[in-house]
Design goal:
Length: 65
């Protein structure tokens, strides 16, 4: 990626966070796995759940669907 493309993606991340905060929400766990980039350099911030369980019991996974 060129330097300008990297700067564009950082700008889009900041715009996305500003848009999330303008809706009185907080992501809380932005990491590279949660940043999705299309082939047209559009950026999406994924995994917007406000509650993330610390441990999931594997005996009844239907409870989390």
């Amino acid at each position: 990626m060129s330097e300008i493309e990297k700067k564009w993606l950082v700008f889009l991340i900041l715009c996305g966070v500003a848009q999330i905060h303008s809706n009185d929400k907080v992501h809380g766990d932005i990491k590279p796995e949660n940043i999705l980039v299309t082939s047209y350099d559009w950026l999406f911030i994924a995994d917007m759940h406000s509650y993330k369980p610390v441990m999931i019991a594997d005996d009844n996974l239907k409870e989390y669907n």
